[in-house]
Amino acid sequence: MLSRHRNERQAVPELLSVLSSGNIVIYDRGYLSQELLALHASLKLEAVFRISKQSFKEFQTFWHSGEKQSLISLKRKN
Fold first, then answer.
1. In degrees rounded to 5, what are phi and psi of residue 11?
2. Residue from 50, 28, 47 nearest 39 by CA
3. How far is CA 71 from CA 1, 14, 17, 24, 74, in A?
4. Beta strand segments in the chain, E
5. For the chain, which end, N or C, has fewer CB atoms within 10 Å of the first or last residue's CB respectively?
6. What's the predicted TM-score (pTM) here?
7. DSSP 3-state assignment of 49?
8. Model confidence over 21-71: pLDDT tens digits?
9. Strand partners, 6
10. Do the beta carbons of residue 64 and residue 26 sit within 8 Å?
C-alpha cells in the first residue's frame, strides 16, 4: 500500500484498518506511543514494539531491574 504523504508513522492507522482482529503487528523503535497502543486496543490487534531504554519510565525500571522478562502495564494519560 502506498501513501501520498510518505510518512510511515502517519500511515499506520490506514495500514491497521486492513488487518483482522488477532493479527500481530511488529514495530521498530520510534513507533511506541499511548495513541498507538489505544488504537491497537480498539481494533483488537496485538503489537510487539522494539523500544529504546528511555521510552517510558516503566520500561526504564524493568531495564535496570536485571530481570529477563516482565509484564509491564502502562496507565493511560488523560
1. -80, -15
2. 47
3. 33, 29, 27, 17, 10
4. 24-27, 46-49
5. C
6. 0.72
7. strand
8. 889 999 998 888 888 989 999 999 999 998 887 777 888 888 889 899 988
9. none
10. no
